[in-house]
Amino acid sequence: MAWRGNPLMVWDLAHCQPPQRCRVTGFSDPLNAPELVRWQADGNSIVILCFGTEIFEWDLYKDEKTEHKKPYNINAREMAISADESLLLTSSNSGTISAWMLPGMQLIYRLENANAFIRDITFSPSGQRFYDTRDSVCNVWEPDALVRLDEHDLSDASTLAGGFVTTGAVIVPDESSDEQGLSDTSTLAEAFVPAGAVIVPDESSESQVSALAAGPDDKYYCCGKEDGSVAIHETIGGTKIRKVYGYGATSTVLLLAWSKSGRYIVACDDSGHIVLKRLEAKGGGKWAVFPGLDIRIRYAVAQFVFSNDEKLLFISTSSKDFVWDLKRKVEVCSRSHENLHDGKWIADPTNAEIILFVAHEIVHQYKWTTLECSDSRRLQLTAEPINKPQGVVRKLALAKDGKNLVYEVIPSQLCDGLRISALATSSLTA
Q1: Residue-level pLDDT at 184
Q2: How is domain 9-201 classified at the CATH fold level?
Q3: Rounded to the nearest 10 degrees, how much is the dihedral formed by the CA atoms of 177, 181, 182, 187?
Q4: d(CA 239, CA 357)
Q5: Which residues have C-beta within 8 Å of that of residue 349, sequence separation ≥ 6?
Q6: CA distance 115 to 334
């Protein structure tokens, strides 16, 4: 147990004895202000980080403390030790991750980052990979600098460390009481790294894709990201060719839909803000974007469905469904529901006036203009699954030839494999 202003204390849980205290020389001793402690794999010693810049190792059985060579550019916030105790991993307040060789603290690899908050870091059991977590994402890294170490005998750390000689080292005076001095120290320190160390930029901080919609001809796709951006990309190569909309950096795009003709794209973010844009394809793979529907809904949006003529947009939410006229930008009708969570909606390919709700065993027919249920019938499957599934319809799509509706069911009980069924569209009019 450790906290600022008090030396580290260790309890032996197997014996009821007073804690073993880490001895310090006085109030100014760095060990009087421990920030992080990590056990070595053998359990005989502890690595202690003080002031974010000084690292000590405390041998509990010998009660001896060893200060590792102080690098002037460590600036650590988190740290981890490899299983063989030969490597130390640190992350700074600015998000830069560094790998150091112990016990000499030679820098062998650095991953530079642009102000990303890293929550935690750790090594893999082999020490050839390391992991970091930031926001809701876990990144896995396997740099050549760590893989190549396996070719050497790490038991002779001094021999291997000889290949990394510090050049241009700068001694920076301690100006920790001066805020500006700290900033200058950090800037100077980052500029001096050992020769042979690998410095690479971190490109993982780019926002993650949170929603995806395929274009009508499979040549393009649209993706929404956690930074609120919505953009069109080429399917081959993934090149971004047109920004469609931007919600803002604090919004996450949760749902996207692209109409069959390619004329409309509709998106929704995590605040229920729905934005529809009208598109026009230009020559040379260029797109023109025009304003459309822009509304806010206080329910969680689950699905978008365009009518066959693309004049109406159906919006399904957790508690209520809506139909909007895209040309007049007005709500046509709405309907509250309680028990329509086990299926998916799709426009009836055989009747432009009907929208279908497909559940596990029943298909319901609703009128687009009123959302009144006009008919319900049991499904007549053209492809029966091996074991007839009981559960919730998760995905629903129309085959390209228009002859079948294909849907996937999440089984209510644990079982092996996916449960996919096909429904002939001809049976909808029978």
Answers
A1: 36
A2: Thrombin, subunit H (2.40.10)
A3: -170
A4: 36
A5: 308, 398, 402, 405, 425
A6: 46
Question: Tokens at residue 399, please?
Answer: 């085959």
Strand-pairing partners, residue 87, are 101
HSE of 52 in the Cβ direction (CA atoms, 13 Å)? 11
Give the tokens for residue 209.
């894709």
How many other C-beta atoms lie within 10 A of the C-beta of residue 275?
Answer: 21
What's residue 201's pLDDT? 62
Phi-psi region of 248 (alpha: psi -120 to 50; beta: other; left: phi over 0): left
Which pairing describes strands 64-67 and 54-59: parallel, antiparallel, or unpaired?
Answer: antiparallel
Give the residue extent of every domain in the chain. 9-201, 207-338, 341-430
Question: What's the pLDDT at 14?
Answer: 81
Query: Which segments of the chain have a pLDDT < 70?
Result: 52, 69-74, 114-115, 148-206, 338-341, 360, 379-391, 394, 410-421, 423, 429-430
| Residue 398: per-residue pLDDT | 78
Regarding pTM above 0.70, the answer is no
Tell me what pLDDT residue 399 has.
78
Give the total residue count for the chain.
430
pLDDT in tens, 313-335: 999 998 899 999 999 999 999 99
Please calculate the CA angle 402-407-412 and round it to the nearest 5 degrees: 165
Strand partners, 55: 49
CATH of 207-338, one of 1.10.443.10, 3.40.50.10840, 2.130.10.10, 2.70.70.10: 2.130.10.10
Please classify residue 76 by burial: count the beta carbons closer than 10 Å to its beta carbon, then call 0-12 exposed, 13-18 middle and 19+ buried: buried
- Nearest alpha-carbon partner for 45 in 37, 54, 53: 37
Domains 9-201 and 207-338 share a fold: no
Q: CA 98, CA 92: separation in Å to the nearest integer?
A: 8
